[in-house]
């Protein structure tokens, strides 16, 4: 191919190659019979045209773990915060919890406030590059409970929650309402009876 290149018109040559790929040497069912380069084409000569182009293997998705804390006030508002502007789900609302990666050794160490936390099970969400599993803890807060630094109270239906966080909130609220199977269309794991107080 290099020998065919007209060095004084490299742009035209590049355009010609792109046109050839778009109209003749297509990924599926290439028109080898009218291809001006078929005599020098190794794939055509060896009968392996259908093996090209070689698709790169998809990278395995990462498996992320984390904990999420759903706190509900008496008026139905839940405790939220904003994610950092840069990064995944940048600037969107979320419940308090751990970072997403390795499973935290002490989940309740990430709790935003002291409460009688109940483990509500886990929810899963698939991103393009990672599978996320969040263990959800839920608790009711007193009417005068103040939001911790960076947090605020808002009705969940008004918060514009991303899907992954919405799943966690639905799971936690279902636990608090005594209906753990109501979340995720009955597919969420059954809640445990374990209770713990955050330190």
Q: What do these coordinates show?
A:
With 199 residues, the protein is α+β, with helices and mostly antiparallel strands. It contains 3 helices and 8 strands. It has helices at 10-23, 42-46, 163-176, and strands spanning 62-72, 78-82, 93-94, 96-97, 116-126, 130-140, 151-154, 195-197. The strands form 2 sheets. Strands 4-1-6-5-8 form a 5-stranded mixed beta sheet. Strands 3-2-7 form a 3-stranded antiparallel beta sheet, with no helix packed on it. A hairpin with a 3-residue loop joins strand 5 (116-126) and strand 6 (130-140). It is elongated and about 80 Å long. The termini are far apart. The model is unreliable at 180-199 (pLDDT under 50).
Overall structural class, as computed from helix and strand content, comes to alpha+beta
In total, the number of strands is 8
Multimeric status of the protein: single chain
Strand line-up in the sheet with most strands: 4-1-6-5-8
Query: What proportion strand?
Result: 15-25%
**Poorly predicted spans:** 180-199
Helix content: 10-25%
For the largest beta-sheet, the strand count, sense and barrel status come to: 5 strands, mixed
Shape: elongated
| Helix-strand pattern | HHEEEEEEEHE
Distance N to C terminus: 69 Å
Radius of gyration: 27 Å
| Helix count from the secondary structure assignment | 3
Q: What average pLDDT do the residues reach?
A: 85
């Amino acid at each position: 191919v290099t020998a065919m290149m007209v060095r004084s018109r490299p742009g035209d040559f590049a355009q010609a190659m792109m046109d050839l790929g778009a109209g003749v040497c297509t990924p599926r069912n290439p028109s080898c019979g009218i291809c001006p380069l078929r005599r020098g084409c190794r794939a055509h000569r060896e009968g392996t045209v259908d093996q090209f182009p070689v698709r790169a293997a998809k990278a395995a998705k990462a498996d992320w773990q984390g904990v999420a804390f759903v706190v509900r006030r008496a008026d139905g508002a839940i405790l939220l915060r904003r994610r950092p502007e840069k990064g995944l789900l940048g600037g969107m609302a979320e419940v308090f919890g751990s970072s997403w990666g390795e499973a935290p050794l002490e989940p309740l160490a990430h709790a935003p406030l002291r409460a009688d936390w109940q483990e509500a099970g886990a929810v899963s969400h698939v991103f393009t590059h990672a599978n996320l599993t969040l263990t959800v803890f839920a608790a009711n807060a007193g009417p005068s409970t103040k939001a911790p630094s960076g947090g605020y109270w808002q009705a969940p239906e008004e918060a514009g929650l991303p899907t992954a966080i919405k799943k966690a909130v639905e799971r936690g609220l279902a636990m608090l309402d005594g209906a753990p199977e109501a979340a995720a269309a009955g597919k969420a794991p059954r809640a445990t009876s374990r209770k713990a107080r955050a330190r």
